[in-house]
Amino acid sequence: MDSATGQIVRVEDATERIAPRSLSGDAWYDLRHSPIFWISVTIAVTMVLIAAVPGWFSHLDARTATCSLSDSLGRPSTGHWFGFDKQGCDVYARVIYGARASVLVGVFATLLSGLTALVIGLASGFYGGWIDAVLARFTDIVLGLPLLLGAIVIARALATQDLGIWPVVLALGLLGWTTPARVIRSSVIAARQQDYVQAARVLGAGNLRLMARHILPNALAPTIVVLTIALGAFISAEATLSFLGVGPKNVISWGADIAEAQRWIRQATHPLLFPAGFLTLTVLAFIMLGDAVREAFDPRLR
Amino acid sequence: MSAYLIRRLLQMVLAFVGTTLIVYALMFQIAEDPLRALAGEKPLSPSQRIQLTEQYHLDRPFLVQYAFYMRGLVTGNPGRTIAGRPIADVLSEAWPRTIRLALLSLVIVIVFGVAGGVFAGLKRGGAFDTISLALSLVVIGVPVFVVGTVFQTVFAVRLGWFRPSYAPELGLATYVLPAIVLGLLSLATALRLTRTSVAENLRADYVRTAAAKGLSRTRVVGVHVLRNSLIPVITFLGVELGQLMMGAIVTEGIFNIPGIGGRLFQGIRLEDGPLVVTIVSILVTIYLVTNLIVDVLYAVLDPRIRHG
């Protein structure tokens, strides 16, 4: 980008670089100075850490800990910050160990839907014509199936086998690719007509090389933004499915814990409020992160 | 216009067949034993097995099963629940409650979302604008069932302003808290949409012309700006009515309202396959039809769409 503008300014003082920046350089500059970006990154990284090594955050392993009914619905205290749930289990330990299901479902569902979106968006944007038309109709069909309803059906159909988080991952991944696919398709179409792509083609670059080296990098920023937001939405959807009773089986999950706590809210509200707070923080962190990155990359907002 | 309408209708028929086929295939074909998928973990007696096999024509090829099923759905005879009650009865009893809830919710969205959006748009950058934007971001991020359970806990259980669950003797009042929960997400979106639309239109040339003619500010805003700003909002609200029906699954479940969503919620918990498939198919149909109506409405309101 620097050489393209024809004015390369080298400033020796490394702390204050005034040289013209690329769009991504501008975006990164904006992001570094945005408190929302840092807050959401901190929350997201913490949640991923909790999901990866819950043992660092809680000395009590919620998967093996024995719960005592004498502690049922006990209030928060110094030894047990979040109190106890109806079964007498430590709410803090369950909240910490519940992060794994949410984060794993979010990450795998995002990977699956991202890959599907990449293949479909790239194919319809790059080739156009009848391929685009057929894929567009197919996208319409999947769009006609609301995420929640489709996921209920898929998760239910696979519920008889004990497959852990995978039915939910499959359901969300297979239904959640439509918006990213449309984003990728439109950025591919925009990039395809650029002069440098035509030039590469004239120089003899094949379709695969054109897509991988010249077109995809242009579609990357909007795709990452839409996938970050999707990650938050998938975590929210996983919790909703668990709440409805079609979530992952035999796994500690915020949604399932909230559903259980909801039955006893007349007696105690803390077993509901703590997992609900963690879930909300996590979902918001990813959605705000995506929003901040999108704003940084949007040249119209400059 | 008619060419556009025909094209759009054909697309909808395709989407309808595609989605119902997918739902049906997922429901019965993914599982090793479709009867197990219908009944879940409950034990099935041999007579129930025969009854379910007959009801769903499970001994016939897949496409024939699907055709029989769709015929039942379209002619208003979708079969019986696992417990043996006609599904049509369950649904006709549940519909009025869901419609009441959705309409009340829509009223709340229009009154607070659109009015708030106009207000925020007129005073862009003001305190109300900033606060409502931040709040609406939070609302968009929080899952509906968290909002529902937390509102139930705080406003019904702790503060005692509402009943925590459905009380038919209260009439429409029993729907107020669930309707707020159901409508909150749409309210936030409607507010943002109206705000942007009003703020954009305020800068338009025709507004300056109207002001230059000497019209009062009230008339310029109330008639000229509002009429143009509300076009995208109206179409959004149309789509939302379909979305509200979906959101009703969670909201009615939380507040124990025996509407369509509440029945689906119970159906999942009681592992009542026939009821779940029927309600899902009906909700998908509603979703598709409202989307079609909104698209057509949009084309009527904005000539650029149908020629595009």
Describe this protein's structure:
The complex is a heterodimer of chains A (302) and B (308). Chain A has 302 residues and is mainly α. In chain A, 67% of the residues lie in helices and 0% in strands. In chain A, helix 2 packs antiparallel against helix 12 (270-297), helix 4 (91-127) packs antiparallel against helix 5 and helix 4 (91-127) runs parallel beside helix 7. Chain B is an all-alpha fold and 308 residues long. In chain B, 78% of the residues lie in helices and 0% in strands. Chain B contains 13 helices and no strands. In chain B, 39% of the residues are buried. Chains A and B meet through helix 5, helix 6, helix 10, helix 11 and helix 12 of A and helix 1, helix 6, helix 7, helix 10 and helix 11 of B.
List the main descriptive attributes of the protein structure presented here.
A: disordered N terminus, B: 308 residues, mainly alpha
Secondary-structure element series of chain A: HHHHHHHHHHHH
Broad structural category of chain A: mainly alpha
Q: Which pair of protein chains has the largest interface, and what are the residue counts? A: A-B, 43 and 52 residues
> What's the quaternary structure here?
heterodimer
Structural class of chain B: mainly alpha
Mean pLDDT of chain A: 80
Topology:
The complex is a heterodimer of chains A (302) and B (308).
Chain A: H1 2-5, H2 23-32, H3 35-52, H4 91-127, H5 129-143, H6 147-157, H7 166-175, H8 178-192, H9 195-202, H10 207-244, H11 254-262, H12 270-297
Chain B: H1 2-29, H2 34-39, H3 46-55, H4 62-74, H5 87-122, H6 127-141, H7 144-158, H8 176-202, H9 205-212, H10 217-254, H11 260-269, H12 273-301, H13 303-307
Helix pairs in contact in B: 1-12, 5-6, 5-8, 5-10, 6-8, 7-8, 7-10, 8-10, 9-10, 10-11, 10-12, 11-12
